[in-house]
Amino acid sequence: MSQTKSPEQLRSAIRKGDWQTPTSGLAPGFIQTNLAILPKEMAFEFLLFCQRNPKACPVIDVTEPGSFVPVLSAPTADLRTDVPKYRVYRDGVLTEETADILHLWTDDMVAFLLGCSFTFEEALAQNGIPMRHQEQGCNVPMYKTSIPALSAGRFQGPIVVSMRPIREQDIVRAVQVTSRFPNVHGAPIHIGNPESIGIQDIGKPDFGDAVTIKEGEVPVFWACGVTPQAVAMESKPPLMITHAPGHMFVTDLKSEDFSVF
After folding, report:
1. What is the maximum span of the chain, computed from C-alpha positions, in angstroms?
2. CB 107 within 8 Å of CB 40
3. pTM surpassing 0.85?
């Protein structure tokens, strides 16, 4: 698929089943988001969790209860069909991966769209910092850490991070570039030794795919919107529907509007 397709064209292709793989690099210039869907009775606690953990869970949009249309970010979209792959967690257990959730949607569901680091990847590339997972044609590696999220109600668990190998001479620039996007995770939360944040084997990510770290490169870690999935595993809500890691929802919002300077 051409990377230059508009968000609406991309969502249409996803809805038809023509695109079912990770979305990194697609629809350049537009915000991509993580997705978490919960019954209304859990929605306030989850919103509070997001507000207490804005690096990992920056809120871009929240739907009205029962509405599958994110009116502020993509008013022609359908959150039941417009993500390449969904995950269904029941009592903390991943029970299903599916191309749509039409069979699961109920009138009390609330959908949360959370900022995604795929948004700032374009800015990194424009600054001469390549993305290894794009070069290798795979998903970005993501890891559970020993850093606890601030709990809210029943929601608690570890912060998840995404990792990108960065050349030593580019690290300062990578921090500067990504800090311009606080609504899509912003600056890294850790640089260097993975073990100091509880990652025992950098070659075995908890989500996504392992990538090559070359000589002269340093692993750099950003807070990740897959955090709610790790939280679901630990907190065990009766039901949480999410995107599959790397398979994001593409909005109509322009990335430049989320850059602070």
Report:
1. 52
2. no
3. yes
